[in-house]
Amino acid sequence: MTAKPSFLEDPSDTRGAIMRATYLALCKHGYADLTIQRIADEFPKSKSLLYHHYDGKDDLLLDFLGFMLEQQKERIPAKQSSGSSRDHLNAIFDRIFVTPIPDDYRDFSRAMVELRAQAAHDEKYRNHFTRSDEFFRGLLTRVIQSGIDEGTFRDVDAEEVAEFLLLIVTGAMTKRVTTNNDAIETARDELDAYVRRRLLADEE
């Protein structure tokens, strides 16, 4: 999650270049101060090309959010090539609970929290974050169910546990970038303790 995706290093097409420019502008300015001009400042081609593809800032940002979700789907493995489901769950948490958080990742995380806030009153943003949460909840559900099937995890309701884990992760990441109290290490410790007590079969 923190390693720079390929579209940031060398965009292969116009859309990739637009997505890169949007990412960089979001990191610098956040949602509130973001404008098409500031995205254009990061874009190597004509500003008019942005208006050719998008009606405005929010139209572009919604496409960007969809693009980033697709990036996440490609980069987060649906299953481990080796190791247990507990290892897979830990690998997912390691991608999220990075310490210390790199400056560019913190800036981007702040912008994403701002974008999620738009969902409170904008149905298009709400639909996106609903889809995003469904993806991550589904991923966690599959990992937990796999652990149940292999005997690593107890026979729990995988979807309910996944929903709880997603709530903890979302809350921890929001707090991390909206307060001066970075309690991410404490949150990760408690999350690990929850997994041991609630999920691990050998802890019974």
Tell me the number of strands. Answer: 0
Looking at CATH, the homologous superfamily of the largest domain is Tetracycline Repressor, domain 2
**Number of separate helices:** 10
Low-confidence stretches: none
Estimated radius of gyration: 19 Å
N/C terminus separation: 33 Å
Q: Average pLDDT across residues? A: 87
Query: And the CATH topology of the largest domain?
Result: Tetracycline Repressor, domain 2
Task: Tell me about the largest β-sheet.
Answer: none
Assign the CATH class of the largest domain.
Answer: Mainly Alpha
**Structural class, please?**
mainly alpha
Q: Estimate the global geometry from the Cα principal axes.
A: elongated
The percentage of residues in β strands lies in under 5%
**CATH architecture of the largest domain, please?**
Orthogonal Bundle
Q: Give helix % range.
A: over 70%
How many domains? 2
Order of helices and strands: HHHHHHHHHH
Key words describing this protein structure:
single chain; Arc Repressor Mutant, subunit A; 0% strand; 10 helices; Tetracycline Repressor, domain 2; 204 residues
Describe the secondary-structure layout.
Blueprint: H1 6-9, H2 14-29, H3 36-41, H4 47-53, H5 57-75, H6 85-96, H7 103-118, H8 123-150, H9 158-178, H10 184-199
